Structure formats: C-alpha cells, structure tokens
TrEMBL record, chain B:
Family: Belongs to the binding-protein-dependent transport system permease family.
NCBIfam families named in the record: ectoine_ehuD (TIGR03003), HEQRo_perm_3TM (TIGR01726)
Bilayer topology term: Multi-pass membrane protein
Coarse class of the protein's main subcellular location: membrane
PANTHER family: L-CYSTINE TRANSPORT SYSTEM PERMEASE PROTEIN TCYL, MEMBRANE COMPONENT OF AMINO ACID ABC TRANSPORTER
Places the protein is found: Cell membrane
Listed InterPro entries: AA_ABC_transptr_permease_3TM, ArtM/GltK/GlnP/TcyL/YhdX-like, Ectoine_EhuD, MetI-like, MetI-like_sf
Name of the protein: Ectoine/hydroxyectoine ABC transporter permease subunit EhuD
Chain ranges passing through the membrane: 15-41, 81-99, 189-210
Domain ABC transmembrane type-1: residue ranges: 15-207
Record keywords: Amino-acid transport, Cell membrane, Membrane, Transmembrane, Transmembrane helix, Transport
Pfam families, per database record: BPD_transp_1 (PF00528)
Length: 271, 216
C-alpha cells in the first residue's frame, strides 16, 4: 500500500487545527445498579489518536457506544465538534436532542465493530456505497468510484463483487473499515476490532489501521488489547479503571513508566 | 356404493372451475396476508404506543376468533354498513385478514432474529430509519421466514373450503353442488380430497427444500 497521498485524498477531512473535537462533561452511565462511567470528564483534540486501555468492564467500550449514540448517557453531556450530541439548545435550556439533530452531529463519527457487522445481504461494494448514497446524497457512480479507491487501499480490490460471508474475518473487518471511511468521518471509533479475528489475520487489519493513522488526519478513539499497536499509533493513552481515567499520557510514558499501581498491574497482565 | 367413472367425467368441468377459484382465492389471500402481516409486524415495533396498542389489540382479536365467524361477519354485517362486496372478494379479504395475523408473528420472529449489530451498524452509518428497514433489516428478516410464510400458504389452502359457506363455488362448493344435483357423492368429494393432497404435499416438500437453502 504505497499510496499515502491517495489515502489522505480519500479520507480528506476538515482542516485539523488541534482544537477540541470531543468533550465528555461529567458523563455518568449506569446499567441497573452498576455504574459503568462515573461523572467522567475528558477531551480529545482533533487529529489525535487516543487509545483507551484498562480491564474489561472498566467502561472503555461504553465510551465509544455513547459517542456513536448506541447508548444514552444517564447524566452529563457529550460534545462533538462543539455541538451537543444527545442534547440541543432550546433558548437557554438544554433539552434531549431530536433524532434530526443527533443524526447531523453523528454523521461526523464512524465506527468499526468487534464483530464487523457488515450487511450480509449486500455485496462488498454496496456495503461501502450504501451510506454515501443514502445519507450523504452522493451519486451512485461517485460513491462507487470512491468505494473502489477505499477497497483498493485496504487491499480488497478483487473482492468487491463478493458477499461478506465469502470473505475471511480479516477481510470482512477491512471492508468494515472502508465502509466507515467512506462517510468521511472526522472521528473513527475502533471497538476491539481485532478481538474476533483468528490470530493470523490480526496483522493485516492492524497494518491498514496503522496506515490510516500515519497518513491521514482523522481523529481516532481506539479500544484495544493490542498493546504494540496502541504504542505505534497513539498520541495519548488513557488508562481506565472502574469508570474513571486513573492515568493518561503519551504511550512511551504509560507503557514504560506508569505511575499508578493499577496501570502497572494491568500492563504486566497483558504485555 | 359403487365408484362410477361416468360421474367422474361429468364432474370434471365443475372441478376445474372450482380449482381455479380455490387457487385464485389462495393467491390473492396470500398476497393480502403477506402485505398486511408485514404492516402489523412493523406497527407493533413502532415507538408510538398509540400505534402499537391498537394493532396488538386488533391482531390478537382476529387471531383468537374463528375464521368462519369472521367470514360470516364480513359477508352479512358489512352490507349493513353499506359495504357490499362479492362473495369471492369477501372470502379473499377474510382469508387474507385472518392469516395476516399469523404472518405478522412470522415476520416479528424474523425481525427479532436479525442481529442487533445490524441495527448498530445502520446507526453508525446514520442510515435513515426507512432505509434501515428496507435495505438492511427486512431483506435479512424475510429471507429467514420465507419457509414459515410458505407453511401458512399451505394452511390457508386447507382453509379455502370455508369460503364455501358464504357461497363461493370453490372446489368443495362445486363438489357439493354436483352431489346435490346428481346424488353422486363419493366421486366428487374423493376428487376434491385428492386435489388438496396433490397440491399441498409437493408444496410442503418444496418448502422444506427452500428452508434448507435459505435458513442457514
């Protein structure tokens, strides 16, 4: 995959100025009696690659699902690009957002899932063109041209006419990455994208993501257990425990000289 | 009683006519059941309780009352309200309406069977709700339930003789008429019985084959 310039062209984003793109403000999420996120604050600047690490059940995936509006926060607010995600302003008051408002803000966010979640009734090409055509209003031709570019970048040129079930897990996940990028999101959410893959297929998917991280200015939020990958691509690593960020910093620091005892324990268990 | 081949020959023209009416009622009734059932199933998932509850009420009511009663009701009560339909039309509507409450359950199971990840992917791509239904959920849901829908077509076939009670001359009606005119009973009723099994049994086999292909 030589085409760095192609990739940045294919994923061209609004200019990155390092300004704040995502803000969680005192966000609390409970499942029944279990408080998964406890009054969480954090921000991500545009263009940054942030990896969330921590033991399972510590709330990492919940953060991605809140951003994707697959879950609603019980308390607090989330802003993306300066706009409230699940709320909207009515005069001075903040009220729960309507479907239309949420959809507009959400268009800036793309997500790749652990289980790929490709549409099995559509061929690979249509998986990638479906949303650009029906959400962004692109012409079929333009969407297909772009889908071909993206599928080329993830190394699946020969597979455009296959159905997802005819592909390996690694190939399916790369289609899912192309599908998310086709919407030109400002933010890409990666939810344990290699956890469901056979070990020999992990590297291919991570290579594609490294490429995207190094050659585009897309903002990435990543939940992963692949610590080497996290070290390669991250600007910042956030260590979660029990719904709180207990430590954060650049990967060199977190992975080599963590301050917090829980971080040390966690890293020694996974590294 | 003796089997009379002449009676068989005499009955056949009426039989063919009856068969045609039976198949016509079955085809149109199935179309209504397929379309209306889908509407019920989707309405039952509406976020508005004002849509959901009336639909649940109506479908439960229809499913739990006999088709025969519904046919009489449609045939004798609707004209009182100024709606006059032919016997066949009434029969088709009755069959379709009754079976739509069964197909609604079939669709519901099919929709519930679509993995939640499909809804999530549609949300992540911001697909509009109508597009999510038409391009993602329903194609997967319906594919799974085609065999189950087919089973209800076979069941409906076996219920078509009921529309004879409101005067539709389908197969049974023709047999009955022939019998009352000629006093030959064995031949027409036997032929009608055989006709049902000749249609229904291959249809069941076909559905089983379809099930192996579609439901994986």
């Amino acid at each position: 995959m030589s085409a760095d310039s192609n990739l940045s062209k294919a994923t061209a984003n609004p200019a990155v100025d390092g300004s704040e793109l995502i803000r969680f403000d005192r966000v609390t999420k409970r499942f029944g009696a279990n408080t998964v996120l406890d009054s969480l604050d954090f921000t991500v600047s545009s263009g940054k690659h942030v990896t969330l690490i921590g033991p399972s059940g510590s709330g990492k995936t919940t953060i991605l699902r809140l951003l994707m509006t697959l879950l609603k926060p019980d308390e607090g607010t989330i802003k993306v690009g300066g706009e409230y995600l699940t709320h909207e302003k009515k005069g001075e008051k903040l009220v729960p957002a309507g479907e239309k408002h949420t959809r507009e803000v959400r268009k800036n966010i793309g997500m790749v899932f652990q289980q790929f979640n490709l549409f099995p009734n559509m061929k690979v090409l249509r998986n990638v063109t479906e949303a650009p055509v029906h959400v962004l209003g692109m012409s079929k031709e333009a969407a297909e041209e772009r889908a071909h570019e993206l599928l080329d970048l993830v190394g699946l040129t020969e597979h455009v006419d296959k159905y997802p079930t005819q592909l390996s897990g690694g190939q399916q996940q790369r289609v899912a990455i192309a599908r998310a990028l086709a919407m030109r999101p400002q933010v890409l959410l990666l939810d344990e994208v290699t956890s469901a893959l056979d070990p020999e297929l992990v590297a291919g998917v991570l290579d594609v993501l490294r490429d995207i991280a190094h050659t585009t200015d897309i903002t990435m939020l990543c939940v992963t257990h692949e610590m080497n990958f996290a070290r390669d691509i991250s600007d910042d690593v956030l260590m979660f425990d029990a719904g709180r960020v207990i430590e954060s910093g650049p990967p060199e620091k977190i992975f080599t000289e963590p301050e917090h005892e829980r971080t040390r324990e966690f890293l020694s268990a996974v590294l | 009683m003796k089997w009379n081949w002449n009676a068989v020959g005499d009955f056949m023209p009426m039989f063919w006519h009856g068969l045609l009416v039976t198949l016509e009622a079955l085809a149109l009734g199935s179309l209504i059941a397929f379309a209306l059932g889908l509407i019920w199933a989707m309405a039952q998932r509406s976020e508005h309780a004002a849509v959901r509850w009336p639909v649940v009420g109506v479908t439960e009511f229809i499913r739990n009352t006999p088709l025969l009663v519904q046919l009489f009701f449609l045939f004798y009560v609707l004209p009182e309200w100024g709606i006059t339909l032919s016997a066949l039309t009434t029969g088709v509507i009755g069959l379709g309406l009754h079976y739509s409450t069964y197909t609604a359950e079939v669709y519901r199971a099919g929709i519930d069977g679509v993995p939640v990840g499909q809804w999530e992917a549609a949300t992540a791509l911001s697909l509009p709700r109508t597009r999510t239904w038409s391009a993602v959920i329903l194609p997967q849901a319906i594919r799974r339930v085609v065999p189950a829908l087919g089973n209800y077509v076979v069941a409906m076939l076996k219920d078509t003789p009921m529309i004879f009670v409101i005067g539709v001359l389908e197969m049974l009606g023709e047999a009955r008429q022939f019998a009352s005119q000629t006093f030959q009973t064995i031949e027409p009723y036997t032929i009608v019985g055989i006709a049902f099994i000749v249609i229904a049994y291959p249809a069941s086999l076909l559905l089983r084959a379809l099930e192996r292909r579609l439901v994986r």
